[in-house]
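We modelled the chain as a single entity of 248 amino acids. Its sequence is:
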Amino acid sequence: GKIFYVMIIISYVYIVVFLFYLIANKSKIKRNDIISLNLLLIFPVIGSVLQSFSYGVGTTWPMFSITYLGIHLVIQQSIISKDYLTGIRNRGSIDQEIENLINTSKSKNTEFTGIMFDLDNFKGVNDVYGHDEGDELLKEFSKILLRTFRRTEYVGRLGGDEFLVLLDNSEHVNIDNIQKRLQDNIEEFNKKNNKPWKIEVSYGVLKYSANNFKDKQEYYASIDKLLYIDKKNRKNNNTQGNRTIAST
């Protein structure tokens, strides 16, 4: 009867609350997920508009049901793509992104840059201080990577103490600036860290071009080789902090 429009108002209250929640937590949500979640709000809007003009036809709540199902699927997909320990992307998600970037590179003649990382002292931390401290080291380094790189860039853990970051806009990638940001963040952590270990890392940088690589496996092998050149140089020179990274 006269309070028919109360249901419509409640619907929009839900939508507004959901939008505020997204805005408040946008730093924790991947950009693609934010877009997907916002698009899902179209369904209850359509449902409430139809229902406001068609008294007796219940379309709002079925549309909300579709939205909730969509939100559930987005969250499940996000969970599947995350590394269980660090919360960053896992190997499967990174592999899929490399495949996407390679396909784009071949079809549009674009490039992307990968940076592979390996923690120098990970085995020692596990052996001396235990696996809980080793896990803590992985988590802290993941946080440093997230602070160093933008939210739109792909930060993931390949497995063990190896990590990979993908930057899909190679022409705007300044490796020197990235290296400085990373080293500053590591040094800041090591100064404030009250743990019995410090973060030390080796890394290699490699730009992908369809003219230089056949597939993902060849690219992985090449960037892995650069990583271990840097690791070997650091070990031979016993260096920490500033150095020239292995890249091409």
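As a brief sanity check on the tokenised model: DSSP finds nine helices and five strands in the chain. The first helix runs from residue 4 to 24.
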